[in-house]
Specification:
This protein is an alpha/beta fold. The chain has a single domain, classed as TIM Barrel (Alpha-Beta Barrel). Helices cover 47% and strands 12% of the residues. It has 12 helices and 8 strands. It has an 8-stranded parallel beta barrel with strand order 1-2-3-4-5-6-7-8, surrounded by 7 helices. α2 links the parallel β2 and β3. α11 crosses α12. The longest helix is centred in the C-terminal third of the chain and has 19 residues. It starts with a strand and ends with a helix.
Length: 302
Amino acid sequence: MKKAQFLVPTVVSFNQDGSLDMEGNKAVVEFLIKGGIDGLLIMGSTGEFYSMTYEDKIRLIDAAVGWVDHRVRLFFGTNCMRKEDTIALSNYAISKGADGVMIIGPYYFSIDERALEIYYDDLASAINGDVYLYNFPERTGYDFPVDVAVNLLRKHPNIKGFKDSHSQLAHTRTLINRTKDEFPDFEVYAGFDENLAHVVFSGGVGSIGGLGNIYPEICAGFAAAVNDKDILRIEKYQQLINAMSELYSFGVPFIPLIKEAMRQRGVQVSPYCLHPLQCAAPEQSARIADWIASIDRMAAEL
């Protein structure tokens, strides 16, 4: 069994005018590292990468590398609408000290398997470091076929892992089963918090989940229980993570809700998001307060 890891796709803190809140972002990084998580994914979907300017992405990379200072693994989402910008941003992040970059497939139009493979062929050939593939069918409009992932792995040794934000665990299991013998070091992560144990026991690595922004200590504890193979603790953490996942149903999209929950837990993060996302509404904030009280009670019983 591979060592279980819980990585956090961090929120990005913005000022009301849309500029980067650098002190808030530094506070988020410190909160997560002190909470015991295994690594950070900055500028993933939870980090609103799709609305950030290229210049702000560069600025955040420069700052975050120094803040993290090799204390945990550090990845950046380097997606841009143009392939050339994705390559340039990826190489910039790696040159600054990132452990790797995570890249979702092109979005807006669905594309076929041939086009997807050619796209990642071009990226992996041009990026001077470790590349992690990212499958999120609900956001791209198409699935990342396992056959394409295997073909890419056979051609590009710098493709090191895969985040599978797929609603069907069977897809993630199939990916693990198809890669674990030929590529034993390939890292497969679930894109949903509650699937960590299933993925690790199936031969993957863990989860990259947004709830870690709010309760990093719980998510780190879940990974530790899996590593210890303590079935009773795993059961308790699984039930707790399942209860935490209720937050995702409080509104769409969930990013402002995560920021509000972090603020209620005392994290110095701004409530603002980039347009068109809005701050949590008063009724959502009240519901989050009740949710935190419930989670705190359950966590006290661990």
